[in-house]
Amino acid sequence: GREAENGLLSTTETNCEDNRAWRLYRRLGLTDIIRGYHVAGDPRAFAILGRTLPL
Description:
Elements: E1 6-12, H1 20-27, E2 31-38, E3 45-52
Antiparallel strand pairs: 1-3, 2-3
């Protein structure tokens, strides 16, 4: 199969990026792709983060 060159992950937006997901994603070197993204039917804002693979 084909290997992916990039990976994307999402998490809910929080004040000062203060939760376990944010700390893990930043520690792994993920950077912002989209901030404040809204999904239909969910009032929360999400962030989409990404980085090149492999980690």
